[in-house]
Amino acid sequence: MITTRKVFAALALFAASCSFAATAEAASCGNTSAGFDDWAAEFKNEAAANGIGQRTLDKVFSQVSYSKATIRADRGQKSFKLSLDDFMRKRGATTIVSRGKKMKNANAALFASIEQRYGVPAGPLIAIWGMETGFGSFMGKEHTLSAVATLAFDCRRSDYFTDQFYAALKLVENGTLPVNAKGAAHGEIGQTQFLPKNVLKYGVDGDGNGRIDMVGSRADALASTANFLRGHGWRAGAGYQQGEPNFGAIQGWNAATVYQQAIAIMGAQIDGQ
Question: Signal peptide location in the record (predicted)?
Fold first, then answer.
């Protein structure tokens, strides 16, 4: 026999399940700002359950917001479709090489120590440094944590940037990343534009001061970049042009073929090859 009490209990259970379903749906990925706040609340709970400290989460999520600038940048990456010549012209390859040679001479001891430790010569490191930030002159103006959170929420590459957001939370927790840090539109950090997960995996203390500062220390940024390349198969003394052994490590840096080719070509010119 179905009593009134049982009916009410069933209705209450149904209502609760509907409420949970609505919350879960609201917290899923999205292609506009709608639902971002619900997603952020859900992510914060998930991150707490996965070991991120509550103090870190409170600090981060008090600062995080949906970044329309990040989405515009993510949808507008057209330069990678250019020909190699047009790409290098647009990126100012001639200026990068000219300034890069001067940077190599001015920081000869630093580049020598990096090559001795990681096997990576100055040329490709300087080419990356120049291409990414104009040798540290412009590292981006977007709020890093908001940029990464936005892309974790965005449906296009949600899984990839969810990993990046967890890495960013860990960097905040260990003191490497300030909650108000600014950088590039996709959350890249510092003078050579590392994504958070790469800072965690490849970031090194290049100047020996006991901490990793990808923004303020060129030694940290460049040594970390060399460590990244070594981690992607760089072999000391081998060539790095297309078709040579170390070109594969450069491919690990950026997925765009024209970008890879530009680094190799400019690197060789800076190294005097």
Answer: 1-21
Q: Tens digit of pLDDT for each residue in 123-136?
A: 999 999 999 999 99
What is each CA distance from 100 to 49, 77, 117, 257, in whole angstroms?
Answer: 47, 25, 21, 22
CA–CA gap between residue 241 and residue 187 (Å, rounded):
29
**For residue 233, which amino acid is it?**
G
Among candidates 194, 192, 113, 179, which has minimal Cα distance to 149?
179
- Distance between CA atoms of residues 113 and 132, nearest Å: 22
pLDDT for residue 21: 34
Domains, the chain: 79-138+191-270 (1.10.530.10)
CB atoms within 10 A of CB 119: 16
The structure tokens 């060789």 sit at 268
Report pTM: 0.86
